[in-house]
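U., I forgot to send this yesterday:
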Amino acid sequence: MHPPLERPHPKCQKEIEEIKNCHDTNSKLKFWACNDFKYALDRCFKAEKNEILKKVNLNLDDKWKKEEQAFMEAMGHKNSFEEYLNKDAEYLKERELAKGRKMKGSS
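Result:
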């Protein structure tokens, strides 16, 4: 299944035209006739999706830091959750115990 072909896909226009032409010229009973065009369309859409995700996630770490800072300011906290955990004696003790158990299990 592919996304709607009516939506603009500038880089995949050739593949869209090929699959539409194949669907128009072949019987629906011969469902395998357009498989090669479908595979090409899927590859193009996958590349398009990966490109969009790269653009969206370009500065993701900075965005997360800004969101965390805004949340801390809104809630009146001075430390992040990680900073809080690194100062919590009980948490640090449990983390060391877990490391010790992990080391024993791997030898």
